[in-house]
Structures
1.
Amino acid sequence: MFLQKQARLGKAANQQAHFLHYALSTEHSFPTALDQATVAYQALCADAKAGQISLVGDSAGGNLVFALLQRICRRGLQQPAALVGISPIVDMRMTNESLKANSKSDHLVPLSRVVRGKNAYLAGHDPSDPEVSPVLGTFVGASPCLIHADSTEILLTTRKRLLLVFGNRALQLNS
């Protein structure tokens, strides 16, 4: 499913698509996946044939691309052409208002699954670290981004906070 989605996105954007098989939280905790993404991104940047690079992530992968973008900004690396977050999980503190308000309407991602994934990923790491909660970070000089969200999602409020961080460099699409 993800490879098909990736292929369609790449074709629609007229770009090559590369899928990063990063370590999942059930296998490895933070910062393994972010370190893998950083190495992969730097390798793509060094490849003259790679062309424009856009970052796309869905759910936990959305967390990863926003954390990676923050790291790119902080280290002064080449910016991607664009970034797309599809229902990204961007605040591991789990303090947003929509957790409770949308718990009955979000049928795709039950809160228990999000909490389980969060606990496995953090493995005791501070959830206020911007590298695990990108909404708390800064994105000075960041590329523009597109954030897809649904008004019934339990993590809707955090995406609204992320929009405030990005200001006029972000566009939100609600479904």
2.
Amino acid sequence: MKNKKLIAALIVAVLGVAGFTVSQTEVHSIVQQFFDTNTVTTPATPQQPSVPTESLDENGRELVAFEKCVDGDTFWVVSKDNGSFKIRLSGVNTPESTNKKEFYGNEASAYTCERIQEAQVIALEYDTTQKDSYNRKVVIVWLDNQNFNLELVTKGYADLKYLKDTMPYAEQYRAAEAEAKAAGLGMWNKS
């Protein structure tokens, strides 16, 4: 018993130095494995974004992996060819949730972050009609082959504050916003 406690302490110390955090259950399992088989399986390392092996999808859109969320219309992605970079959604605007808090901003951010993490395939279509003053790439995001920018407008998480008629999908966005407003969805529900 004394040896098991000593080995458990050593394992926790070694894994801690290596950057792992382990639960009491994992330590017990590791010690048990050590005594049962004399081999130890270490806990998994924190998961990094799995960079797509292909550069483009069948529609010519850049395939990316989600890296981290900033807010409802801005986040970081990583791609095979371009590494890690920050993107801004084209044509749509979600309420602020970072520096300046706006009505429905936290909900829009939470929805975006959750929805992107659930997606199996994330692809970017670049909007060449826009320039971003913060050096973000301006894109239409496709989640599992669905226009995510349009989804945000349809569900009332985004408005069209910065939309111009020359931008891709402008007509669809305007129709979706009108429907969301009429139905009082998301940010349009002020009650």
3.
Amino acid sequence: MVALNWQECLIFGITLAVTFIETTSQDDSCTATWHVWSEWSTCTDSCGGCGIYMRTRVCLTTSTACNCEGMGTELDYCNFDVCRYPRPACCYNRAIWSTNGRFACKLNQTTSFITDPS
């Protein structure tokens, strides 16, 4: 069973509104709850799609045998503006693309070729 619950928590004398996603097992003996996602971190780089940012959430359980479903960390690439010389314009498997008169780094689409063995 999955339910979205809201409650107020008193932490260090401050009342916070907290949203939880609760998952219970079939026998209801184990409860595992995801706390809400954190804010996205600052991007680790300024251009070229080179940077990564992340957010996390904590699994709160009633027992060490209980687990939350899903991932506790999300990662994504960020800052797709083209880098200035002397850095490479784009990182990883990215290429420069132009959209609406603006340049950006985009995943390089590769084409696979099938050769006829005959």
4.
Amino acid sequence: MCISKGNRASAARPIKLYGVMFEDQKKMIRDVHFDGLLKIECSTIPAELANWLMFECFNADTSELILPGSGRIPVTTQSVADILHLPSKPKSNISLTWTP
């Protein structure tokens, strides 16, 4: 499995990687309860949207996205874990070793 390095911060990178992963590799991700990452299908984020969210809506003091007329979205470890279906605390009994 060889993936071009390209832009290391690219939103498309995980999407491309998931497409060439073997099922046992995906199972390892599911086994540590990170399966929410496998469900991400959006490979791009429009720059104008990202800029609006980060510069117009994000309040660093309260760690919230404040959406005019729609309310507030907390940006915390727990809220991100809830949205992406990820564990918010490490599991002490999980082994992350893998051999091909």
